[in-house]
Amino acid sequence: INFLDIENRSGKDVELPQNADIHIKNASFAYPDSKTNAIENVSFTIKNGETIAIVGENGSGKSTLIRLITGLYLPDSGDIMIGDESTKDISMESLFYNNSAVFQKYQRYQLTLRDNIEISETQKYTDDVHLDDITQMAGFSKDDSSFDKGYDTMLSREFEGVDLSGGQWQRVAIARGFYRTHNMIILDEPTAAIDPFEETKIYNRFAEISKGKTAIIVTHRLGSVKLADRLIVMKKGKLMEIGTHEDLIKANSEYARLYSSQEQWYK
Hints:
The chain is an alpha/beta fold.
């Protein structure tokens, strides 16, 4: 009931330039009733068309930082600038236009496989050939044994359909993100229930479709981050390092420590 009393966020409707850089300027953010900041004085720039990987241990602030970049959250201090516009001044509709994201906590819609994918952009018309391309990039096919009626398979036992494993649901959620028309796409650890080998294949396909677009990968698994142009290394809400995989390995600091602890997974 208290949620219904919360005032709607306002902001101006603007057409953000699709070639704009994103500037994170001394951004800090704390959750309600928390005595410490989840994000503390973070500054860097994401260039248009760049692929960024945000890495760090659990609780390092990766997902919170993503929510600030997308405008889901507003910084308590500092600014997130999309070109010359602050996310504090822009309507949510304008912020989310032409953006797509797949988060850790995705929705399992009690709908058909087709509707579970197309719900990310309901006004977009497509055909099965395009959906085949999308699902292939997400690592599955309508012809898999789980989908007895192809795209018309109901994904709910309550409606005389089928249920999926956690990994299968994650692939459906990733397909939903790929389906939406976007200039920027974010994958926020959507592959936790998928083994590292399959995750690497998904990220490699993700890199292919993201060429020329701004792309952000958030993960605590480091086997796939080499595809990124730059890595943002977070620890306890603070930006520790920024650079390429090779540069950060040579620096022999936080990223090198994290990578060496996981290296045996990917040999």
